[in-house]
Amino acid sequence: MAANQQQQLAHDNDSWKKQLNLPTKDTRPQTEDVTATKGNEFEDYFLKRELLMGIFEAGFERPSPIQEESIPIALAGRDILARAKNGTGKTAAFLIPTLEKVNVKKNTVQALLLVPTRELALQTAQVCKTLGKHMGVQVMVTTGGTTLKDDIMRLSETVHIIVGTPGRILDLAGKGVANFSACTTFVMDEADKLLSPEFTPIVEQLLTYFPKERQVMLYSATFPMIVKTFKDKHMVKPYEINLMDELTLRGVTQYYAFVEERQKVHCLNTLFSKLQINQSIIFCNSTNRVELLAKKITELGYSCFYSHAKMLQSHRNRVFHDFRNGVCRNLVCSDLLTRGIDIQAVNVVINFDFPKNAETYLHRIGRSGRFGHLGLAINLITYEDRFNLYKIEQELGTEIQAIPPVIDTRLYVAPSSLDDQQQRQQIDHQEQQRLIHQKQQLQQQMHQQHQPQYQQQMMPQQHYPQQQIHPNHQQIQQHHQQRPQQYQRR
Ligand SMILES: Nc1ncnc2c1ncn2[C@@H]1O[C@H](COP(=O)(O)OP(=O)(O)OP(=O)(O)O)[C@@H](O)[C@H]1O
Ligand SMILES: [Mg+2]
């Protein structure tokens, strides 16, 4: 082929890129959790052009580490069990190959994406629609708490991909409304949650409606041992991906504040006045406490929404939608919103009640610091929580430090939020890396400087000597590098 012909072809091949409607570039610094890639490009995977268009228009420039590992294997049709940190792009890691394999000319359900909560189903379906925007793919979301009749009507039309929660999907399959006999892709996001005792029987029953030749893909940031039984029983030689040599996110700084139960609200008030919160999520351990706290926060004069599983679905949806759109700065919730929820504006997570186990802790604090960005996690710790704090630190191989009198905003506020638009545009890659490095140094310095003067300014009163918080502080250091059995690389 003549050189000018080749040039013309390359030009034609690339001309579609010029038509793309790209979003404003996100210039916030990012950690290695998402930047340590092999250097793949989305175009390396020979995806349909319409899908590539959706990917680029979603603002994704190149695949994240989990996407690099997962996309080619999933495209090859193999079962996958993948583990990667919170907010590093697992959703697109399974959505991109799923969308690539869908044949939009066929009027059948070809993929099921199973998630544990209704809010996550709505979010995942939305991402699926965004990525598949130019493909003409029909995505349906279905969860409990909505009218079954609407689902039946919807399923009488074309549906290629269903996103939903287990109970409703099983209901639809059992009634013969949803036909999964040609559905060859079965994805479980937050798979360990879906394989907890409350869900496992439903998931197993649901699988009986699927063809024998199917691809099963499991994704989560946490994979305790319970997953093994399912793996052995329902997966064929799964390709295992584990990108979690360390467990916590590099961009999230974690602190604890030691308080009495009755001081918690006062403490929260102090935090509100001192922190630079872009948006925050505040976790409580019961629905009752969610409502009580939300009331208190409002009385203190701060704006806040709340959400928990006992609320009406329509109300839950409204809260989720409005909080995501920045209508309100703070959201108080139960563990309903612990997993998968992706709101990039959240830079602070507060455990008003400390969680019971390491998995919940990890997922909760992972609501900030999305896609390698900076975030802050603050834990209010009572005397009763102290052993649990120690246990979780051990299990996660992380050290949660005592809250210093002043928290440097550079640890959790992106420079773009501090500076004006022009400065934001000037931050180049080197600058970003310098900022991340600076953050790590700051964390170390603050720990060394402030540890003895335990939370003087931030906290109302100090009632217990610091040593009581950890049964053995030195032991924590020793355990720092160790991994408990359940988190070991498989
Ligand atoms: N390749 C990419 N380039 C830029 N941004 C991306 C890319 N992939 C994902 N993101 C963004 O990263 C954020 C986090 O992605 P996602 O919700 O998939 O994380 P996750 O790994 O599923 O986290 P979690 O464990 O909390 O569920 C989203 O806002 C998403 O739009
Ligand atoms: Mg997710």
Automatic annotation (TrEMBL):
Instruction: Enumerate the PROSITE patterns for this protein.
Output: DEAD_ATP_HELICASE (PS00039), HELICASE_ATP_BIND_1 (PS51192), HELICASE_CTER (PS51194), Q_MOTIF (PS51195)
**Keywords linked to the UniProt accession:** ATP-binding, Cytoplasm, Helicase, Hydrolase, Nucleotide-binding, RNA-binding, Translation regulation
Regions of compositional bias (Low complexity) in chain numbering = 435-490
Question: Motif Q motif at which residues?
Answer: 40-68
Question: Recorded E.C. number(s)?
Answer: 3.6.4.13
First-level EC class: hydrolase
Transmembrane annotation, as ranges: none
Regarding protein family, the annotation reads:
Belongs to the DEAD box helicase family. DDX6/DHH1 subfamily.
Which GO molecular function annotations are given, in alphabetical order?
A: ATP binding; hydrolase activity; RNA binding; RNA helicase activity
Q: From which domain of life does this come?
A: Eukaryota
The cross-references to Gene3D superfamilies, in alphabetical order and at most eight, read: P-loop containing nucleotide triphosphate hydrolases
Q: Which Pfam families match?
A: DEAD (PF00270), Helicase_C (PF00271)
Keyword RNA-binding listed? The answer is: yes
Q: Which organism is it from?
A: Linnemannia hyalina
Q: Which residues form the Helicase C-terminal domain?
A: 251-411
BP terms from Gene Ontology? regulation of translation
Q: What is its main location?
A: cytoplasm
- Compositional bias segments (type: Polar residues): 1-10
Region entry Disordered, spans = 1-36, 420-490
The protein's location, in the record's own words, is: Cytoplasm, P-body
Q: Which reaction does it catalyse?
A: ATP + H2O = ADP + phosphate + H(+)
- What is this protein called in UniProt? RNA helicase
